[in-house]
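User: Okay, second chain of the day. Same drill as before: sequence in, structure tokens out.
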Amino acid sequence: MATIYYESDCDPSVLTGKRIAVIGYGSQGHAHALNNQDSGNSVVVGARPDSRAWSAATADGVAVETVADATAQGDIVMVLVPDHVQAGVYRDQIAPNLRAGSMLMFAHGFSIRFGAIEPSPEVDVAMIAPKGPGHLVRRQYLDGIGVPGLVALHQDATGNALALALAYGHGLGCARGGLIETTFTEETETDLFGEQAVLCGGTTQLVKMGFETLVEAGYQPEIAYFECLHELKLIVDLMWEGGLAGMRYSISDTAEYGDLTRGPRVIDEHVRENMRKLLADIQDGTFAREMMAEEAAGRPNFQRLREQNADHQIEQVGAKLRAMMPWIGEKAAVKPGA
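Assistant: Same drill. Structure tokens below.
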């Protein structure tokens, strides 16, 4: 059984007199900084002076310094810049200013798992990884609940790394939902697999192919959008609340029979084999090398695919339908036209 830590297992007082440096102020960065500050912890954000992150953190009332200065001030340095730039930021701005005995933290193990960052043996290295996007981490904290997370140790130079990591997770709000103990390797490999095979890659392809199949058969695109995308949230909410069994309990017998008999015809053993190949590419570093090579080349394939998908009919139809439902736009992480 997994070891899970809750608020009662955490001692927030171990952060008394310590300063948290949050490097980056994007989706995760703003949530980590604001939640910890609201929890009473001392926080400084590290960002470029001419960046959107600097302006946003200042507007939100969080202290901001350059990455180098924030690192120098930090007893705990949480690295939340994107994976593909972490190595350079660490080499040039964090490592020269990271004090012995301090803690280096991550919300994803990519750079440690694939050797892009090799920390000094004189610092603690830990992870607190919320299992949800930053905007949800912030929203649920404000609602008095919390997104569950993962906690992992890579180095325990001081002998106090776990206590500090748990206190950080408490300040972030993740201990409200539970912090599951893991390793950097397990977190990285399962996170990449989940994103690629199910949560992002698998889901978006399933939604698009379902939409295209209905439209190609002559059905109205608006109907196809509601059936294949809009209603997905309702089904996922039921799964989130009660698991697969809870979802099946709530739907009609017709829907459940179709689920049980037709689902395996769509997602079959061929898909499982492809999933195993994806996992192998993650485990042996193929995906990491490909992604870093794409970044080094200036993202030509990434940008082409991003633009191609943004122009898909499902996006055009969806934008028009969502505009008629302003209550959806109020919750959107990305506003229309942004």
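The two ends are 44 Å apart (CA to CA).

User: Thanks, on to the next one.
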